[in-house]
Amino acid sequence: MLKRIGGEINPEGAVTTIGEAELPVPFPLGLEFNSPVHGNWNIVHTGMLMPEAIQIYVCADNCMRGVVLTAAEMNAAGRFSFVIVEEENLLNGNLEDVTIEGVTDVLNKTEEKPKAVLLFTVCLHHFLGCDLDRVYEELENRFPEIVFVRCFMDPIMQKHGLTPDQKLRKALYDPVEKKSPDEKVVTLVGSDFALDETCDIKRLLRSGGYTLKELTACTNWEEYQELGSGKMLISCYPPAKYGAEMLAGRLQRTHLYLPGSFDYEEIKEEIRTFAETVKNSVGNAEKNDKGESSRNTESCMSSENIEAFFQREIVLCEDALKHAKSIIGNTPVALDYLYHPRPLGLAKLLLTHDFNVTTIYLDSISAEEKEAFDWLKTYCPNLELRATIHPKMRVIPRETEGKILAIGQKAAWFTGSKNFVNMVQGGGLWGFDGIRRTAEMMTEAFLEEKDTEDLVVRKGWGCESCI
Amino acid sequence: MRQSYRIIPVYTADVSGVCSALYELGGMVVMHDPSGCNSTYNTHDEIRWYEQDSLIYISGLTEIDAVMGNDAKFIRDIEETARELQPKFIALAGSPIPFMNGTDFPAIAQVIETETGIPAFAIPTNGMHDYTYGAGLALAKIAERFVQPSGAAKVTGATRTDISDVTSTGRSSHTLNLLGVTPLDFGPQQNADCMKQILAKHGWQVTSIWAMGDSLENLSHAAEAEVNLVVSSVGLETAKILKEKFGTPYVIGTPVGDFTEDLVMALEQVTNNTNKKKKSSEEESTSGGQDEPEIPYLRNRLSTSPEITLIGEAVTMGSLAAAIEKKYEKAVRVLCPLETNAGLLAPADHITKGEEEAENYLKDAKIIVADPLYRPICPSHSQFYDLPHIAFSGRIYLKRYKDILTNTTYLL
């Protein structure tokens, strides 16, 4: 039973239309609400991707509670330890000592020493001018067999700089050692999810005899170190771009940023660039002394074959979208930014295929979505945008008359829908295949209700959850 | 090292305690924090968040605002939201960075109250204390600001307890307030309701529950109750305020198992004594005649070597210990890891600070009753009984949350 506070709420400020919205933040900033939707990954989930590593956090009780229970809920409490910062540590200015001695104590009590420790320092370290160089130097002296990875949980910095999430996606690859490149290996950097086996990138690489190495597939330290063998690096998830660029610079590799998209032309351009880069890389590796290619990589990534690939893929996408439309019909569709980093692009795709997209839930608009934003502003100015963190979103009714299809967990909670696509952060979708998968998941969600309350409150979609 | 934890979590902190205590009272709580406090609270410390609205927000503090001391933005954002949503009060709670900066929360609250006309107050939290401290101070503020003398308060909308037998002092006979009831210690609402029913069976009507399943309006009538029952350490500060303001005596203990009879006897005794003293000493108009708090679970405890160890909040575990001793005649000790414990523990009990100390105390424990997340530090030879505690393991065991009042059949 939904309980309401007060009477009618004027939604102004929390709800607008895309015609009236401005980039990059369409809603006024102020106090922030946090919905009970927790499928997004946080730094604990992402940090657990590093094999044979443990995480140690050094912070105050309240900050600690969220991360330690994240680990517990994903059945990974054994890979999580911490050191509590108390009032007296702030007043005495001995944060370095507390950090060093606390981490040392935890490691001394840990029977099987980890290969790496993701050591998370926090806002307090930053504000107190804690000498982190000294901290790491001392810990490295005490535990020379362990790699200490510099990680941060300092959200106070995130509105004017890199977020803790972005910094972690860089730090996760800091221990990767430079090694001679394997010409047949491409490394995906910074994603929480493995790319789907059917996605365009993987199919193209397989057809050329390549391997895509992903952190998500690494089960031990040796496999993790093999990430450094990629001749070329790619990143697909926007918060991963910074870390991937840093890693490419350090390892002196080519890096391509290939964000997931719902726009045929953008996908084509990304694949052309990708194929060209791969081809060049392979060409150098696989040409014999006479300059002839030893395999057919060049031919499978040739311009002609790529263009033919596009044609086939687009036909399949159109079929999938038509099929979804034939089932979903004119049912209202609401989608959110948590489903995929390109919510406007997805809305544009669906609207151009006659889906009845009514609402997008988001709080800001990425610069990568400017083109979709401009298109929607021109052709669908009445499309509704709803904030997710605006204070009024706590009390604006979360029920919808009639059936509504929600794409994403936040859209599901805010609309009260049980018909929703349960995925976050773009999952393993990419390219034309990602469009088809979305159409298929929309159809499935439309036809089969889910237990919204049970699913969306679970932390870290795709992780173990013991609640 | 006391501050390092290898495997067990920390308890809910003071900031979340404030939010939990005030959740259902129609106010607005603002945590002055960059990010995270809100998510931590509503994910792990608040089981009502999905279905029941409450105006609980963070300020979204940024580095630049913290460095420049830009309180104006904080005030403006709160006032704008308050004008739109019209909360019954505004409570401010600080986190570590504002604590370090010395943010003057009482002054900010005063500015907000003056400019909006909405009662506003600050709870001195910093994210480094236990929930018992934060929740306790939050409820005490409600007592300070909103409870009216008996007969003076106006009932505005809320359904009130039917009080028919009003004594000459303006208090209703055999009525009490339950102080310190939050989901952090008591879980879902039915446990609070259950406590109410148990007391009703023993002839005691509950005037108000601080603060689950009750309204600010009803709480404002707390002075009409004959006695206060502090069912967790969260309610202790409120009891002191109500005693000081209205002379209401209080008893400390949770109605659990066979201990309920002792608790009810203590309630009778305290109210009888208070009435007698009032009659014999007219000049004692508000003191209520109670010198020391009545804590029946500390009386008649077994002095033999403890066979059973309970871990948790002082009052609920102390009461459970008394109930177990009464039923099984086996000595029980309580390990209390929470800071709100002064005067609430028996001689055999221990305050434990940190994982290491708790582990040391548990080394020779034979039977342990605690939240399941304590298991990893318990010796393998001990018998372990699960007693989930939301303030420790959050929602992990919510689906099989045991009602310590009635369902502890495996214990009682």
UniProtKB/TrEMBL annotation, chain A:
A Pfam family recorded for this sequence: Oxidored_nitro
Upper taxonomic lineage: Bacteria, Bacillati, Bacillota, Clostridia, Lachnospirales
InterPro entries noted in UniProt: Nase/OxRdtase_comp1
Protein name, per record: Nitrogenase
Residues in Nitrogenase/oxidoreductase component domain copies: 111-371
TrEMBL record, chain B:
Entry-linked SUPFAM superfamilies: Helical backbone' metal receptor (SSF53807)
Region (Disordered): 272-298
Coiled coil: none
InterPro entries registered for this protein in UniProt: ChlB/BchB/BchZ (IPR050152), Nase/OxRdtase_comp1 (IPR000510)
Domain Nitrogenase/oxidoreductase component: 28-284
A Pfam cross-reference name: Oxidored_nitro
Protein name: Oxidoreductase
Species lineage: Bacteria, Bacillati, Bacillota, Clostridia, Lachnospirales
